[in-house]
Every structure is written in structure tokens, then in C-alpha cells.
Specification:
Blueprint lengths: L5 H11 L4 H6 L2 H10 L12 H10 L4
């Protein structure tokens, strides 16, 4: 399994979206992805995620 691209996510959230660190770390990944799409920045991943990949990601990183 690949490591999650945290450096790219932080670049997107803190740099491009100019979120405060507090707000960035409180966001869920779907919220960050939606903010990126809404800002016209696309996604922080290079390709679309399959349903199976999303399920695996949710299992590996569950919201608590």
C-alpha cells in the first residue's frame, strides 16, 4: 500500500487554499478534496480514486 501523500495535501490546504493549520487538520479528506475542487484546483491526487480504493482508504484511516 502506498503512503498517503501528506506533503501534497498540506501544500494544497495550507498553501493553495490558505487554510489556517487548525482548520486544515480539522478537515476530513473528503472535505479537503471538495474544497480543492470548489477552488478550481482539482484534486490533490494525480488520478481518480476507484470505489475499492476509497473503501480501503476509509478502512485504513477511519474517522474517529
Amino acid at each position: 500500500m502506498k503512503a498517503f501523500p501528506w506533503a501534497r495535501a498540506m501544500e494544497l490546504g495550507l498553501g493553495h487554499l490558505r487554510l489556517a493549520p487548525r482548520d486544515f487538520w480539522r478537515m476530513t479528506l473528503p472535505e479537503l478534496a471538495a474544497a480543492a475542487r470548489g477552488s478550481g484546483l482539482g484534486s490533490f491526487t494525480q488520478s481518480s480514486m476507484s470505489r475499492e480504493q476509497l473503501i480501503a482508504l476509509n478502512e485504513d484511516y477511519p474517522d474517529r
